[in-house]
């Protein structure tokens, strides 16, 4: 019995698992089958692998070839297992020594001429392989830069299946085409620094809104900005990542793993800057939360993990799309259920919404320029339902700018100064929540807040509850805001002034 084996790694969302691939060459009519719940693209590996091996000088067996992907109960997808399938068939045929593949993972898509193409999702795969104690991984040359992000693994980069055969003690006949720079896929960003967010000092006026965004960045709070067109809502939101606390090493790897899975790591690279996603208001549910047949793919809320999800013209989003945000806002992850199983993606983001006061945008102040009927204004803003608004920590009015100056105002704070204050407040919160493992005030539990907030401050919350200015969820969020305000002011705990401000920020009362 001729059986060859190789190892690969599969992904269900960001969760990786080892795949043991075995090939069996048996008597019978020529046939090549792949079993073990492969998807359509993986089933097509039959033709790719057969042609690639023949292009490397290997004489394909004129008998029955069966490839099994274990565990057979888990669905496998994608073309990244082509190289491991080729290695297992070559081992079964005796073209290479299978002992050389022990504790070695092989990953890569193969072309018909035997060239090995780059893959998506290598970073979470390598992290899992390292955790499982595997010592060596064979990857496409196009993924070389991404492989450097993970130490402790012997990463061998190849361009052709023939190189794999020679590396494992076999003999191959192949010809490498000249490597072209535009064909190489540097998935780690080609060594270029990612684009920096624009500076907050470039925004004219809106000092109160800048302070509100500083509070949001310090505590990880969600924000709704309401104001007329041209007031600067989009400019302010796009500069929020520049004032947020830089990502630590673990968070950088989380974000980079998501980008690797989405195939955008080359564009964004690995950085300390939190991600920023701004889907168009016509985005579907699947575009926001993720979707697709088989194993669901990540959406905008997962790509915004550890960063900002900005929804401009928020009332223009479909009500159904807005409602899909309710669970991720509370849980910090999204569960996508399909016929073949449930995929979990992280989704701990800061939601920033921008909205006009009415459809025409001029329903502010005395409303002289507004041309909307009352029922149109009500219908427009009612798309932001009560449950969604109750999950928004800060609601702020963004007034029109009434005066500009010829030079930058001397007191206009820059992003660097704001970020220093935010980082200091975040550090205080992390130290306070060291035992609970919460990263910011927005993650603090209600029981802890009620137990550790002063009696006088809690009494203000109780008064707001009696007047129905706050819901019970809103009361917890107001207390979290108060703790963030105290951190920014260098206080150990919030008092009555911070709690009054927290309640005011919740209810759009100035």
Largest sheet composition: 5 strands, parallel
CATH class division of the largest domain: Alpha Beta
**Which range does the strand content fall in?**
15-25%
Overall domain count:
2
Average pLDDT figure? 90
Oligomer: single chain
Helix content: 25-40%
By CATH, the architecture of the largest domain is named 3-Layer(aba) Sandwich
Q: List how many beta strands DSSP finds.
A: 18
First-residue to last-residue Cα separation: 80 Å
Number of helices: 21
Shape: elongated
* CATH superfamily caption of the largest domain: P-loop containing nucleotide triphosphate hydrolases
The CATH topology assignment of the largest domain is Rossmann fold
Which structural class do the helices and strands define? alpha/beta
Q: How are strands sequenced across the largest beta sheet?
A: 11-14-17-10-18
| Radius of gyration based on Cα positions | 28 Å
Task: Flag low-confidence runs.
Answer: 181-187
Structural account:
- The strands form six sheets. A five-stranded parallel β-sheet has the order 11-14-17-10-18.
- Helices cover 36% and strands 17% of the residues.
- A hairpin with a 2-residue loop joins strand 15 and strand 16 (341-346).
- It has two domains: 2-167, Ribosomal Protein S5, domain 2, CATH 3.30.230; 200-400 and 411-443, Rossmann fold (3-Layer(aba) Sandwich), CATH 3.40.50.300.
- It contains 21 helices and 18 strands.
- With 510 residues, it is an alpha/beta fold.
């Amino acid at each position: 019995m001729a059986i060859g084996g190789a190892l690969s790694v599969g992904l269900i969302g960001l969760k990786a698992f080892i795949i043991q691939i075995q090939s069996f060459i048996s008597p019978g009519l020529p046939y090549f089958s792949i079993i073990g719940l492969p998807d359509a693209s993986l089933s097509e590996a039959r033709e790719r692998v057969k042609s690639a091996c023949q292009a490397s000088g290997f004489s394909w067996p004129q008998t029955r070839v069966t490839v099994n992907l274990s565990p057979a109960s888990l669905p496998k997808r994608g073309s990244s297992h082509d190289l491991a399938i080729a290695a297992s068939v070559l081992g079964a045929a005796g073209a290479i020594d299978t002992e050389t593949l022990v504790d070695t993972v092989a990953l890569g898509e193969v072309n018909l001429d035997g060239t090995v193409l780059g893959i998506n999702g290598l970073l979470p795969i390598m992290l899992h392989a390292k955790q499982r104690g595997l010592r060596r991984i064979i990857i496409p040359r196009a993924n070389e830069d991404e492989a450097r992000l993970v130490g402790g693994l012997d990463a061998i980069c190849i361009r052709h299946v023939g190189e794999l055969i020679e590396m494992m003690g076999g003999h191959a006949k192949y010809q490498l085409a000249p490597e072209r720079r535009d064909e190489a896929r540097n998935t780690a960003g080609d060594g270029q620094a990612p684009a920096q967010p624009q500076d907050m000092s470039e925004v004219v006026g809106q000092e109160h809104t800048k302070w509100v965004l500083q509070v949001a960045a310090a505590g990880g709070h969600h924000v709704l900005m309401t104001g007329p067109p041209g007031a600067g809502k989009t400019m302010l939101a796009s500069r929020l990542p520049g004032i947020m606390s830089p990502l630590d090493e673990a968070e950088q790897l989380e974000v980079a793993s998501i980008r690797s899975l989405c195939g955008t790591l080359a564009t964004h690279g690995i950085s300390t800057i939190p991600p920023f996603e701004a889907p168009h208001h016509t985005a579907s549910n699947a575009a926001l939360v993720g979707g697709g047949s088989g194993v669901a793919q990540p959406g905008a809320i997962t790509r915004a993990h550890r960063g900002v999800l900005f929804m401009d013209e928020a009332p223009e989003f479909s009500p159904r799309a807005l409602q899909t945000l309710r669970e991720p806002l509370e849980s910090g992850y999204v569960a996508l259920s399909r016929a073949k199983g449930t995929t979990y993606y992280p989704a701990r983001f800061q939601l920033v919404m921008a909205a006009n006061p009415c459809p025409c945008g001029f329903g502010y102040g005395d409303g002289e320029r507004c041309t909307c009927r009352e029922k149109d204004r009500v219908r427009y803003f009612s798309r932001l339902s009560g449950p969604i608004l109750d999950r928004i920590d800060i609601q702020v009015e963004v007034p029109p700018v009434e005066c500009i100056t010829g030079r930058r105002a001397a007191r206009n704070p820059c992003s660097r100064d704001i970020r220093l204050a935010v980082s200091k407040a975040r550090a205080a919160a992390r130290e306070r929540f060291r035992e609970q493992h919460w990263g910011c005030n927005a993650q603090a539990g209600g029981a802890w807040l009620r137990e550790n907030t002063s009696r006088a401050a809690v009494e203000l919350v109780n008064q707001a509850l009696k007047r129905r200015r706050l819901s019970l969820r809103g009361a917890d969020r107001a207390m979290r805001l108060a703790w963030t305000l105290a951190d920014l002011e260098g206080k150990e705990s919030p008092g009555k002034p911070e709690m009054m401000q927290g309640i005011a920020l919740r209810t759009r009362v100035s």
